[in-house]
Structure formats: C-alpha cells, structure tokens
Design goal:
Elements lengths: L7 E5 L7 E8 L5 E5 L17 E8 L2 E3 L2 E4 L2 E5 L6 E8 L9 E2 L4 E4 L6 E2 L7 E6 L5 E3 L10 E3 L2 H5 L2 E5 L3 E6 L2 E8 L8 H4 L3 H16 L9 E8 L3 E5 L3 E7 H5 L3 H14 L26 H18 L5 H16 L9 H6 L12 H4 L3 H18 L4 H13 L7 H11 L3 H10 L6 H7 L2 E7 L7 E6 L2 E7 L4 H4 L7 E5 L2 E2 L3 H9 L7 E7 L2 E7 L6 E8 L7 H9 L5
Parallel strand pairs: 1-12, 17-18, 18-20
Antiparallel strand pairs: 1-2, 2-8, 3-7, 3-11, 4-5, 4-8, 6-7, 9-10, 10-15, 12-14, 13-15, 16-17, 19-20, 21-28, 22-23, 23-24, 24-25, 24-26, 26-27
Helix pairs in contact: 3-5, 5-6, 6-7, 6-10, 7-10, 10-14, 11-12, 12-13
C-alpha cells in the first residue's frame, strides 16, 4: 500500500515547556462510520491506567470541516463521516508523568509510551502505521522502528506502534553489538558526578554485552530474538523499574542507587530482567495476551512464570556472565528470600491468585497490602528457585524447561496456558505434575530449607533487639504516625490502625522512632505498655501487650556441614549450568 494511504501518526514536541504533545492522526477511510479508541493500559504493566485522562482538544477534520465525534465509552469515540475523503484526527496529550509506562516532556527531554498517545482506528489494527516527529532544534529521536525514506518510521501494524517507546532529546547514543546484532544505549540524566554512564564507566557496555549473551545462552540460542535493540535509561533521583518491548526496553534507575556499593550490580540485574523479556513475555507469551486487548483487563493466571522466572534468573545472569562474586549473589538471593519470609500476605494469597488479581492489587498497593497479598514477582522468584533445584535433583534444570518452551511455543509466537507450563516441567520431573499445581494453588511455603540444603546453603534468622509490637512508624511534620500495622500483631489486637499518631509511651513523649526505641530499651520484661495516641483529632489511650523479639531478617549462608558434592552442585546452579 502506498505510504500516503497508511495511517500516519505525527507528533509535535517543539514546545517542550508546555508539556503538551500535539498529535495528528491522518488516514484514508474506507467506510463512512469512523470508530477509534485510546488504549487503557500498556503491555507489561498490568493496570488500567486510563490514559485518556491526559487527552484534550479532540476533533476530526475532513475536507476542511471540523467534526465532533460522539463519545461512546470512556476512551472510545465514533463519527458518521460525510464522505470518504482523507481524515485527520487532532488532539493534545499532556506529558507530565515520568515513568516507563507514561509520557513526559520538558526542556531536557521527551519520553512517550505510545499506548498513551496513539488512537486505534477500527479496521486498521493490522495495517502498517507511519510515525513522524517534529522536534526542538538540536534534539534527535531514538525510536526502535525501521526508518523510512521520508524521515519517519514505519511500524508493521498498530501493535508494533504501541510497542514503540520514543525518547527524544540532545542525548549521546552509544552503539554496541551482541552476537553481531546492532544495539544502542541512550541515557537521559547524569550520574552524581555529572557524567554520562557509558562514558564515565568504560567497562559498562562490555559488561552489558556479556549479560545479553548470558541471556542468549540461557535460552539456548546463538543470538538475540530481535534483529536490533534499543536500551533507554532514565537516570533520575531515586527511581527503579523497567518495561520490556519486542526490540527495546526502557529503564528507570536512581543516580543515588547507582552510587551505592551494589548500585552497578543491581542495574545490571535490571538490564538482564528486561532483556530476557524479549523471549519470556514478549514472544513466549501467555495465551491471554495473544492478541492484546488494549481496552480491558485480562485475567492472566501465569504471571508467576512470565515475571517470577525472570525475577529469579535476573540475579544469576550477571554472575553467569562472569560479573560479581558468589558472596554478592548469595546476598542478593538471601535478600529476596528474607523479603518473602517477612511478608504475611504470602499466607493469604496464592501465587496463581497474585497473577489473576494483578490488575486490582499489585499495582494498587497500600499500607495494608503486605498483610493480604504477595507479589508474583517475589513469590514467583522463590518458586522458580525451588523448581530449579527440584529439577536438578532429577538431572535437569530450569534452563532446560525454558529452552523447550521457547523452541516449542515461543519461536512460533504461540501463546501458552498454565497446562502447557505444568506439562513442560513435568516432562523433566514427573512428580511436578502434582507438586507444581499444589504450590500454585496453596499458601504454604514450599520446603525451601530442604532444597537449599541440596546446594549446601542454609537460612539464618536475625531477631530484633526490641520487643515486637507489630507496627511500622513514620516521622511526619505532624508527628510520629503508624505507617503499617501487621495482621494478628500486638498493635492490631490493641486496636491501632494505619494513620494513628503516637503521642506518648509509658508517660514519655514521643517525637521520632528513636524516642520509642529508648523507652522500649528500658523494658526488661514485657508488661503492658500504656500508649497515648491521636486519631481523627481525638486523643485516646490503649494498653499494648508486646511479644518477644521477632525475626527481622534472614540471611543466606553456606552450610559448613554440607554433604559431599554440595559445593559442586552450588557452583553449577549459580552459573545456570545444567547436567
């Protein structure tokens, strides 16, 4: 089809100080009933975001006439056209939210998640779409789409357009290759010392390349799934996160995080996580996401595999690439196990439920969430560890299952269901046909200690030096308030709720957490504590019965009494080697 007939999305970013993106969507209609919609969410981030909140000034122009479409849903419109002349849909997008899944534009840069920008035209989803950008002087665009001769880009269909993150600005671009496949690295933002990350760290791109190659080895392939790849890093004050795409990823990372002793290692793990998603999630995809339904939430029972497996191996991949030490890796794995074991919600919400309820729980976390839910990222990673070690008892390993699923389903882009996953694991260890569904459906912890013992490891607990009250405090200008109350804890039994302001304990005035620690340090036994607090403007009192000190952290240690062969099994496991 001639490019003049393709739907064409033109974005005007020449007034970045306004934080408004001017949008013109031109296309040639083939029928007079025009219907279009704006996506409500973006793949990889399972929350209805109602991007329409940032849309303004919508109008349709045909043959010089301005037409007003009729809204038939919160983000859907329709219009009976007078004729079949070319149509231009005009609107503006307010770009004020800096995340990897929203839009942000200012005098320094612009970032667009096109799910928040591009209208889907009924009947044109599988048509090629053109993208054109108008930029401020001195800026350039970083777009993971094939360029066209007219200075724009062409997406093979609407899904590919929505899957395209757009970064613009006066940024340097760094080229490198992974198994001969061209890659680009673009950073917006500076390190604490004021430099560009790859320029400041001469080893950075070489290490990223090794992590990417480790992903290829894990999947049993010689080269990346994409034939070109773009990495965009937003280096801001203290962010963290990423979003995967077919041929790119966008990362957000805090410069203060980067300056920590483990900052570089953690950023490499984030790179590994998002890079692996070009296989697991993007091409090896849950059937419920094949194709995407941009206007509604879809229940996905298998997010434990899509994200949990990836969250588990993202720590192992840099190590398997020769980056980091065993001690650092055990510290990272132990930290995740500690977070898991200290989350009460793991005994309330099953792993399958965590994925099914992602749209309404995980991305809407509040002060009560740790009590009634568990992240499928976190619990999924713990289950992945258990599955990997279980498979190794049977002479196999998690990489074998991943490769099998990739070759059987991922290469063809065939979506999987939970039954496919269970069958793939059971093919390597028959007892997983019953064990895996039980672990997915139940809320009991899998036998972690037994599996860790196989590789000569053990979990050691560390108890708090203070009596356990079951609350977490936060210092605010108005005083010391309860940020969290643990379910079935002394604080909950005494009637405390999130938001209560603590005034005094045993007659001593409280201003900050250190005041509370000083009073508790003087309690040699565990008598009832007299608490004066305020709620809704009223001063109240209560008696609090503390309990003995609770476990505040778990540490993963090498067991000096481990049996013969444990060290070799541990080495092969941590390096993602299979028997």
């Amino acid at each position: 089809m001639p490019t003049s007939f393709l739907p064409s999305l033109s974005l005007d970013l020449r007034a970045p100080e306004s934080q408004l993106v001017g949008v013109r969507l031109r296309y040639q209609p083939s029928r007079q009933l025009l219907r279009f919609a704006l996506p409500a969410w973006t793949p990889g981030s399972y929350l209805i975001r109602d991007y329409v909140r940032q849309l303004e000034g919508l109008e349709v122009v045909q043959a010089g006439r301005v037409l007003q479409p009729r809204r038939v849903g919160t983000s859907r419109w329709e219009l009976a056209l007078p004729g079949l002349e070319p149509v231009e849909i005009r609107y503006r997008i307010l770009a004020t939210e800096l995340t990897v899944r929203t839009c942000h534009l200012d005098g320094d840069h612009g970032f667009l998640a096109l799910a928040a920008v591009a209208l889907e035209l009924e009947g044109e989803r599988w048509s090629a779409h053109r993208l054109c950008l108008q930029l401020p002087p001195g800026w350039q665009a970083f777009v993971p789409l094939p360029a066209d001769p007219d200075g724009g880009w062409t997406a093979r269909h609407f899904d590919a357009l929505v899957d395209t993150p757009v970064e613009v600005g006066p940024h340097p671009c760094h080229a490198f290759a992974v198994a001969g496949v061209p890659h680009r690295w673009v950073t917006w933002g500076r390190t604490l010392s004021g430099g560009d990350l790859p320029q400041e760290d001469p080893r950075w791109l070489a290490d990223v390349e090794q992590v990417c190659l480790a992903c290829c080895r894990l999947m049993g392939v010689d080269r990346p799934a994409a034939d070109h790849y773009l990495v965009v890093l937003h280096l801001n004050a203290d962010g963290y996160g990423g979003l995967e795409h077919d041929t790119s990823t966008v990362l957000q990372y805090g410069r203060r995080r980067l300056a920590r002793p483990d900052g570089r290692r953690k950023l490499l793990q984030l790179v590994a996580h998002e890079y692996l998603h070009q296989w697991n999630v993007r091409r090896l995809r849950p059937a419920e996401l094949t194709p995407y339904a941009y206007g509604q939430a879809v229940v996905i029972p298998t997010l434990w595999f899509a994200e949990g497996i990836t969250s588990y191996v993202d720590q192992l991949l840099p190590f398997s690439a020769g980056l980091g030490s065993v001690e650092e890796l055990l510290e990272d794995l132990g930290s995740d196990l500690s977070r898991y074991l200290l989350t009460p919600g793991r005994a309330v919400q099953s792993l399958r439920q965590s994925g099914e309820e992602a749209w309404v729980k995980l991305y809407r976390a509040d002060a009560h969430s740790p009590n009634n839910q568990i992240s499928y990222y976190l619990k999924g990673a713990v289950l992945a560890l258990v599955l990997d070690l279980h498979l190794r008892r049977h002479g196999s390993g998690l990489p074998v299952v991943l490769r099998c699923l990739w070759h059987r389903l991922g290469r063809a882009g065939r979506g999987y269901r939970e039954a496919d996953l269970i069958a793939a694991f059971a093919a390597e260890a028959g007892d997983l046909a019953s064990l895996l569904p039980a672990w997915l459906e139940g809320v009991e912890d899998p036998p972690l200690a037994d599996y860790l013992a196989d590789v000569g490891l053990m979990l050691e607990s560390r108890r708090s030096p203070s009596l356990w009250l079951g609350w977490q405090l936060q210092s605010r200008p108005e005083g010391l308030t309860l940020q969290r109350v643990v379910r079935d804890s002394p604080a909950q039994r005494a009637g405390f709720t999130v938001g209560d302001e603590l005034l005094a304990l045993n007659g001593w005035r409280l201003h900050q957490p250190e005041d509370l620690k000083a009073v508790l340090a003087g309690c040699v036994a565990a008598p009832p504590l007299r608490v004066l607090y305020a709620r809704d403007g009223q001063v109240r009192s209560a008696e609090l019965e503390p309990e003995p000190p609770a476990v505040e952290a778990w540490t993963l240690r090498i067991d000096p009494a481990a049996g013969e062969g444990a060290e070799d099994r541990r080495r092969r496991w941590l390096a993602l080697e299979c028997p």
